[in-house]
Amino acid sequence: MRRASRWLGLGCVVGLMSGCAAVSKQAAPSQAEQKPTCPDTIPDELNLELGFRPQLVARTWVPALTFEHLGFQPKEKVQPAFQQEVTLASGPLQVFGLMEHSATGPEGGGSLVVARPHAGGFCVVNSWNTWQSSHVGLSLASTWTSPEGKRAIFLVKMDMPESPDGPQTRWVTLGTDGARMWIALGAPPEHQLIVPSVTLTPKGKDLYLDIKQRYVTRLRLGEDGRFILPATY
Asked: What angle do CA 42, 176, 11 make, to 5 degrees?
C-alpha cells in the first residue's frame, strides 16, 4: 500500500476577534464574534489518515457545510462528491464528501466529513481524508445503520483511472456513533482495499463486508464497530 503523496498540517480553528487596544487593557470580544462550543461528547481526536483541512478537525463548529466554511479558497479546485443525512439514536448526522484537484499537477484527494447540527450550524464529529498522486473520484457506495441506531458504517469508493500504477479502484470503510468516527477495517496506510469490488451485506442484525477478488472474503462487523479479520491475516 502506498502512502499518500503529501501531508497537510493539522491545526485548530481560531476565530479572529477584533477589539480596541488600550495601553493597559484590551476590550473583550463581543458575543457575536464568539463561535459556539461543541459538546464534550465529541472527543478531541485527530483526523483519520490525513489532516486535510484545519476546519475539519473534530469538535470544530462551522456555520454551514460549504467549501468556504470548510476552509477552501475560491481559487482551489474543489467540488462536492456526495451529501447524505443519517439518523442515529443520538440524533441526525450529515455525511459530506468532497474532492480536490491540484492546481499545479495531477494529484488529487478527497474527504468524508461527518457533522451533526449544533447551535444553528454544525459540529464536526471528524473527517477522513486522502491525497494521492493522481485524480481521485470519490463516491459513497453504501451506507448501513444498525437496527438499534447505535452506529452507521460507510463504504467509500475511490476511482483512480490515471494512477501511475495503472487504473485502480480503492475502498475504505468508516464508522460513526454520532460522537466519534473511526476506520472500520485496517489502519493507515493499510486500510485502503485495492480490489475490484467490495459490498456491505446485512444479514439480520449483523453486517458483513464482502471483499470480491478471485473468491469472496466475508468479514463480520464486531461489537466495537470494526470488521473482524481472520486469525490467518
From this structure: 50
Q: Cis bond leading into 189, ω under 30°?
A: yes
- Only one residue has cell 466475508, namely 218
Q: 12-71, pLDDT tens digit by residue?
A: 222 222 232 332 334 444 444 688 999 999 999 989 987 656 668 899 999 999 988 888
Strand blocks (E) in the chain: 61-62, 77-88, 91-101, 108-118, 121-132, 137-145, 152-160, 168-176, 181-183, 193-194, 197-203, 206-212, 216-220
What whole-number distance in Å separates Cα of residue 68 and Cα of residue 50? 20
**How far, in Å, are 17, 129, 151, 152 from residue 224 at the CA level?**
41, 22, 10, 12
All three cell numbers of 180, joined, read: 466519534
∠ CA 79-85-89 to the nearest 5 degrees?
145
Could you tell me the strand order of the sheet in which 108-118 lies? Answer: 61-62, 121-132, 108-118, 91-101, 77-88
Reference 113, options 100, 126, 104; nearest CA is 126
Rounded CA gap, 110 and 153, in Å? Answer: 18
pTM, entire model:
0.83
**DSSP code per residue over 138-155:** EEEEEEEE-TTSS-EEEE
Domain regions of the chain by residue span = 35-195
Q: How far apart are CA 158 and CA 57, in angstroms?
A: 22
Query: Could you report how far apart the first and last alpha carbons of the chain are, in Å?
Result: 16
